[in-house]
Amino acid sequence: MPLSGPSFQIEPQAVYRAMRRDHGPVVPVELPGGFPAWLVIGYRELHQVTSDGELFPRDVGLWNQWEHIPQDWPLLPMVGRPLPSIYFSAGDEHRRHARMVGPALEGADPLEIRRHCEQLADRLIDAVCSTGTADLVADFCEPLPVLVLARLVGFPDDEGASIARVLKDLADGGPGAQEAHLRFGEHMARLVAAKRAAPGDDVTSRMLAFPEEFTDEEYMLDLMAITAAGHLTTADWMSNSLRLMLTEDEFAQSMAGGRRSVAEAMNEVLWEDGPTQILAGRWAARDTRLGGRPIRAGDMLLLGLGAANTDPLIRQSLTGGGSSAQGGNGAHFAFSHGEYRCPFPAQEIAETIARTGIEVLLDRLPDLRLRVPVADLVRRPSAFLRGTTALPVRFTPVRTTGDLP
After folding, report:
1. Measured between alpha carbons, how far is 161 from 123 in angstroms, rounded to an integer?
2. Cβ–Cβ under 8 Å, residues 266 and 351
3. DSSP strand pairing (392-394 vs 369-370)
4. Which residue from 378, 281, 282, 274 is spatially nearest to 333, judged by alpha carbons?
5. DSSP 3-state helix, strand, coil percentages of the chain (rounded to 5)?
6. Alpha-carbon gap, residue 387 to 172, rounded angstroms
7. C-alpha to C-alpha distances, 91 to 4, 57, 85, 225, 286, nearest whole angstrom
8. Spatial distance between the Cα atoms of 25 and 201, rounded to a whole number of angstroms
9. Are residues 39 and 311 in contact, defined by beta-carbon separation less than 8 angstroms?
10. Taking CA 58 as the corner, what is the angle to CA 52 and CA 64, rounded to the nearest 5 degrees?
11. CA 276 to chain centroid
């Protein structure tokens, strides 16, 4: 079945239910251009794939479709080509990059990250707080993560806004995406050169200080991966959490009554409405079987993270038969799983940015309410990413931080 269409945008869980009914936990799908792949939607099967890096490595070079893939294939930036970076390498090469990137991220002080978030969130809110209206996606959720990440990797604030524009052009995937990718690389190359000349307390300087030898291209590609991977996913995590709070009366009332927290809303989103629905991917190292399907060497396996999180077989054991995984259960696949999952320090940084940003927003603008009917909210047109394109709100105008006593 084609892995596209409005049904993924409107109600992906209905699509996954139909897939389970008709195909089981491993679904034959067709990518744009007619290229075949397997979408893994069963929780247990996804756990098997992500736990076995030898049988199912993230080695894009194994793909048995390369001879048919055109240079301008729209999914090429996401699927990638073999590159010397933490995201597009496999095996020992991946582990070499992870040894450098993990500690560099872990070296960021959590209190300092929170201080950056509070300061930058206040700055974004100050730009709209006196007007009484805003689009929480464009005005807050999209710019905040990249502004914080730009500071953490070592950019001065005046370059953070430029990085945000580049990443927005990349995420939009329009005609300017290729040019934006080049500009993104140029920003990172300049940053590596600047930090080599004058190191600081930042991710880039810690990467450069790591004792193993890496090329400037490897540093640049890893920094691009860190920033790009953390940008849109964190932005969508924030906007999906705010959407839940603003549109579901039961949840909003339980928060107002102190029975629910921002953290619980964010965790529920990771289960029910995760930013990354489908992740490409893994490639079979040899012929095998999975979920009763014959998988051939070089076949692409797409990780159906959002579908696996709602697999009824696992949800029954996690929720006692209920429909929601509310609470603190963290056994979801929102950050993937196994050797190639989102590094734990990166998960903590994303959680700090999202949670702090939402808390500052709700503190500054406590009476947020939607400016349009819920039915008018539009999801990003993608089977792979789950986000809201705009979240128009109104609120009582308040003074900027500079005007407060």
Report:
1. 12
2. yes
3. antiparallel
4. 274
5. 55, 10, 35
6. 12
7. 31, 7, 12, 17, 16
8. 46
9. no
10. 110
11. 6
pTM, two decimals, is 0.90
Q: Which amino acid is at 222?
A: D
Q: How far apart are CA 13 and CA 329, in angstroms?
A: 20
**How many angstroms separate the CA atoms of 287 and 297, rounded?**
5
Please state, in angstroms and rounded to a whole number, the distance separating the CA atoms of residues 342 and 284.
Answer: 21
pLDDT in tens, the chain (405 residues): 778 778 887 888 899 999 999 999 999 999 988 999 999 999 999 999 999 989 999 999 999 999 999 988 878 877 877 788 888 888 899 999 999 999 999 999 999 999 999 999 999 999 999 999 999 999 999 999 999 999 999 998 888 888 888 887 776 655 666 788 888 999 999 999 999 999 999 999 999 999 999 999 999 999 999 998 888 899 999 999 999 999 887 666 655 556 568 888 899 899 988 999 999 889 999 999 999 999 999 999 999 999 999 998 876 666 554 445 444 566 788 888 888 888 889 999 999 999 999 999 999 999 999 999 999 999 887 888 899 999 999 999 999 987 654
Give the C-alpha separation, 117 to 112, whole Å: 9
DSSP annotation of 138 reads: I
Report d(CA 335, CA 309) in Å as an integer: 11
Burial code of 203-233, b = ≥16 C-beta within 10 A, e = fewer?
Answer: bbbbbbeeeeebeeebbbbbbbbbbbbbbbb
One-letter amino acid for residue 304 of the chain: G
